Amino acid sequence: MHHRTPDRSSADSSGRPPASGPAPTRRGLLGAAATTGVAGLAVGGAGSTLARTALTADSGPALTTLGSTAHSFHGTHQPGITTPVQAHGHLAAFDLAPGADRRLAAGLLRRWSATAEDLMAGRPTTEDTGVARDAGPSSLTVTFGFGYSFFDATGLAEDRPDALAPLPAFSADTLDARRSEGDLWVQIGADDALVAFHALRALQRAAGDAASVRWQMTGFNRTPGATARPMTTRNLMGQVDGTNNLKESDEDFAGRVFVPDGGEPSWMAGGSYAVVRRIRMLLDDWEELDLTSQERVIGRRKADGAPLTGGEETTPLELDATGPDGRPVIPANAHARITAPEANGGAAMLRRSFSYHDGFRDDGAPDAGLLFVCWQADPRRGFVPVQRKLDRGDALSAFIRHEASGLFAVPGGPRPGEYVGQRLIEGR
């Protein structure tokens, strides 16, 4: 996905921020935003999780505005879905305590919602540890979802969505059950690492005895402003990753990503389904390939992400193009060909992933790859058909391992005064 970066209103003509003056404090950043009314803030609504006044498509961030960007906790959809992907992320699953019931779950979700609302506004919380005291909200988003087992634990099995049925087994999976699934899922993103960690710790503390961490993963992306102009990010294989991702401007975007009003179940209106996969990249093997071989595996040029059939990054794939030898220019098993919507009956999803690096394995290979997160209105029409096709013959499969997996129902955004999931828990 493209990063949108804050306006350089405080920079000089060279594009650099002012060289003098005191560094902004957390209070000062928030005060400046409040004074201007809307600068750096996104408030409510389906598309308003994008901080449009602080993020533009053709300029980089001024150091004094990166921290002040805030997103609203309330809205038609939860934050962290259409929000531009941040530089730092945490994914975590929690299991409810043994003997938990609906009342305990409601109390937990109330505390979590109140904590997330304060954190995203840059306010201290009851669980504040002071870690983020000097920073603004830094584009923080907190997103909550329910796993398949949540509904059994809370006696709500009759309200479990059909679309939350467990994902089918894929032949290439080597899944670790201890790092998969979970009753509750939390996604945290921020453009400051301390702000992101502070949110994770605050939510863990707010869980109290009601729930415990099942697994947690930490990821990262390119920091806004790190490139001379906004660009599609690269993954740890060095490939431009996210060129053909769904865009809010697409005519059918909402229908592909969000459960519509009147959909089933009704409490999921405005919500989405997140598939989460920890995908380790075999970087030692990948890096032994020459450039031409790498590009044939992906189906795109490594330098700029353009299709092997030519053009620019956003040029459509010419899947029927053949070379002088009569063979497809984009190989039949190239990743770009297999994942193309036109090759999957139109199946598509919104990908919003983080890279990760968890040190080195015993053989010296990096334990690194992609924390894959994709959003869709129904995983049976989005992720599942595409992954089945990848499972049957994707050239990239030789260089990756799917090691953890989860599927979560992410309800619509709470209204002011509501907590996340209230319409499920309380039936309204």
From TrEMBL:
Family membership: Belongs to the DyP-type peroxidase family.
Cofactor(s) the protein requires to work: heme b
Domain Dyp-type peroxidase C-terminal: 232-413
Enzyme class: oxidoreductase
Species for this entry: Streptomyces sodiiphilus
Protein name: Deferrochelatase
Presence of keyword Metal-binding: yes
Record-linked PANTHER family: DEFERROCHELATASE, DEFERROCHELATASE/PEROXIDASE
